[in-house]
Design a protein that fits this description.
Layout (H helix, E strand, L loop, with lengths): L7 E7 L6 H13 L5 E7 L6 H11 L3 E5 L6 H9 L6 E5 L10 H9 L4 E5 L6 E4 L3 H17 L11 E5 H7 L10 H11 L4 E5 L1 E3 L8 H20 L9
Parallel strand pairs: 1-2, 1-4, 2-3, 5-8, 6-9
Antiparallel strand pairs: 4-7, 5-7
């Protein structure tokens, strides 16, 4: 990496993503190269058994603003995002999915919202203006809708889509939220937003263009796991868990 402190840090969690990651990296780098601000991309290898790490090394050899973060065994997407968000340096920090379901150019709309006074801007598939070019299966969509009602009841009301994998945090909000998180897998989005709200950060939900990848690793059983983890978030809130600093 060079010595320039980046304005934008992009975190991409990756588990066995050797096939989908190259396109996402090429598209993300091509976009960022056209922007006037400094940037970095951190791909977090979550214990992959394929060539994910080599894909990132190849990209990093071509551009020093790309870096590989890894820690050995698989821990889950939540752990990977938390690790990435606490090891990057940008004034603005965004995490996005390795399948590029929501592309980096959404920053054009999100950054002015941060500058207007918000601390967190999250992509949403369930508010006016959102476009879903390729839908999930009907079962997943129904489970998602039911799950959101559960999430709003137990953890964070007023947000229609907590699970879309494109979220942007200011450095201050990121530093004050991610070190406290405890959930390693799919429920981490809910936990991050719940802690952000507890700490008084302003959250804006914005429509996105979203393309479902038919090879998505999110199974219907993952939705049930999220429901359990949402209850855990509520218990943590009541017990004061998020008032104690937890290291990554």
């Amino acid at each position: 990496m060079n010595n320039v402190v980046p304005y934008i840090s992009v975190v991409i969690p990756a588990y066995n993503e050797e096939k989908r990651l190259p396109h996402t990296l090429r598209a993300t780098i091509a976009y960022l190269k056209k922007q006037p601000y400094s940037w970095e991309i951190a791909v977090v290898n979550d214990g992959s058994s394929d060539n994910t790490a080599q894909v990132v090394r190849t990209s990093a050899a071509e551009d020093s603003r790309v870096m590989l973060l890894e820690y050995g065994q698989n821990h889950g997407k939540g752990y990977a995002v938390r690790f990435g968000m606490t090891h990057v340096h940008g004034e603005i920090r965004v995490f996005m999915d390795a399948d590029n379901s929501t592309s980096i150019d959404h920053l054009e709309k999100f950054l002015p919202i941060l500058k207007s006074g918000y601390d967190v801007v999250i992509g949403s598939r369930d508010i006016a203006g959102a476009t879903i070019n390729v839908h999930q299966s009907k079962v997943k969509e129904i489970l998602g809708d039911l799950g959101n009602l559960w999430i709003q009841f137990w953890a964070i009301g007023g947000i229609k889509d907590t699970q879309a994998g494109f979220k942007v945090f200011t450095k201050q909000a990121s530093d004050d939220v991610f070190p406290y998180l405890t959930i390693d897998r799919w429920g981490f989005d809910v936990e991050a937003l719940a802690v952000a709200r507890m700490r008084g950060y302003k959250i804006s939900e914005q429509p996105i263009i979203w393309v479902n990848d038919p090879n998505s690793k999110v199974s219907p059983s993952a939705y049930m796991q999220v429901l359990k983890e949402v209850v855990q978030v509520r218990m943590n809130m009541l017990s004061g868990k998020y008032n104690r600093h937890e290291t990554v």
